[in-house]
Amino acid sequence: MNKIIAAFDGLKYAAATRDYSIALVKRSNAHLFGVFLDDPTYTSYKIYELVADEGVSEEKMNQLDAKDKTTRADAAKDFEQHCQKAAIEYSIHHDHQVAIQDLKHESVYADLLLIGASETVTHYEEKLPTRFIRDLLADAQCPVLLLPDQFTPIEKVVLLYDGEPSSVHAIKMFSYLLRGLGDVDTSLVSVNPPESNLHLKDSKLMKEYMKQHFPDVQTSVFKGLPEIEIVEYLKTQPASTLVVLGAYRRGAVSRWFHESLADTIMKEVHLPLFIAHNKS
User: Which of 101, 146, 181, 270 is the most exposed place for a label (fewest CB within 10 A)?
Assistant: First the structure.
């Protein structure tokens, strides 16, 4: 049984992450852990809201802290109620240290981490990818599934392949962890340089592998620049599509899936993104 963790900011509770995580666990042999990032350095209010004529109001701070505590408790209760209704195996963790460090530590002992792509774990909004997500993806110790703000049941999977070990590793991790999605339409997409042919790199070996894990896969090979062709292709896909891509690191690991392309996909394509990188 796999251990899937879903991370939540209890002050800005992501119902879509809840719904995606429950739907995936119902289709998989997995136990769901709701990880609530109750970072004590993070509040829903800003410090200037506490300033009164006599200075910082301790009474108002206590009131706002109590409100935050209730909001976080209500979020965890909602998660628990939905898990019970879905009749899945679940547990809840409340992490009370610095959120990003707690979540990285949790990822060491998880098979898969689910989190909203727009999470900041601050009271500020940021453009995608947020600083929190960039930091998490660079150092996560398990594959990460980034989720949009609106839930749509997954009915299609797109596997991005560039012939490099990191993209194959991501496809492997997806096939191992989310076998429950094996019955949905699956496409393998690759992009070759403009001057090359339309053959997959390592075609024979890749076709052998796909036959064992995704026997009904549809393969598409384009010519051009990956950062253009891939994004344009994904823009044509329905909201029910999940995308699998390779390495996300500080620096290029794969010919395609270096930081800039992954960032571009996050900015321009609001689809679930399964990201795994091979640290060897």
Answer: 101
